[in-house]
Amino acid sequence: MGVKTVHEDGGAERASMRALLVLAIAAAPAAADEAAAMTALCARIPPDAREARGVACDAPACGWAQGVTCDGGAVTSIDMRGWGLVGTLPTEMGWFSMLTVLDLRDNSLSGAIPIQLTTLTSLTWLLLSPNSLSGTVPPEVGGLTSLTRLALDANSLSGTVPPEVGGLTSL
Questions:
Q1: In this structure, how many other beta carbons lie within 10 angstroms of the beta carbon of residue 7?
Q2: pLDDT tens digits for 131-166?
Q3: How high is the pLDDT of residue 133?
């Protein structure tokens, strides 16, 4: 009788390969989502600012020379403070599942704060002032329990700060 090795029946090896394939397939949509989100954000950077910073919108986000920090191929920090961003915040921003820092201060962003930002549960910094954002602060911001810094002042936001934001004890 003897002990079968992985190579004798191949079953364990095939199972291991299947597991790796499943992981690769699961990671592909996340990478594609981040690429689409970076393309949408890049479209808000004026051409002269892109040129000055050496940013090409078709380049992988983790290959940008500045403004983006990655860990293990995932975007973890976006710091585009003072880049001259214009237009609305892309709803695709909610696709950065590992994002911890979003610093878009000192730009000319307008429109509402997309509700999709409130899905970024790893965020520790959400810095969006000053800009020209309007509308109300989504109450769901109160669910971003990892936040230690929140800057929404110097915008054109209306209404009151939702009570849910008061529950963010690490601010």
A1: 8
A2: 999 999 999 999 999 999 999 999 999 999 999 999
A3: 98
- Cα–Cα distance measured from residue 107 to residue 132, given in angstroms and rounded to the nearest whole number: 8
Residue 27 has pLDDT above 60, yes or no: no
Structure tokens at 35: 């690429």
Residue 90 has pLDDT above 50, yes or no: yes
Query: What are the b/e assignments for 10-35, b being 16+ CB within 10 Å?
Result: eeeeeeeeeeeeeeeeeeeeeeeebb
Helix/strand/coil (H, E, C) string of the chain?
CCCCCHHHHCHHHHHHHHHHHHHHHHHHHHHHHHHHHHHHHHCCCCHHHHHHHCCCCCCCHHHCCCCEEEECCEEEEEECCCCCCEEECCHHHHHCCCCCEEECCCCEEEECCCHHHHHCCCCCEEECCCCEEEECCCHHHHHCCCCCEEECCCCEECCCCCHHHHHCCCC
Q: Measuring CA to CA, which residue among 66, 62, 65 is closest to residue 30? A: 62
Nearest to 155 by CA among 117, 116, 112, 115: 112
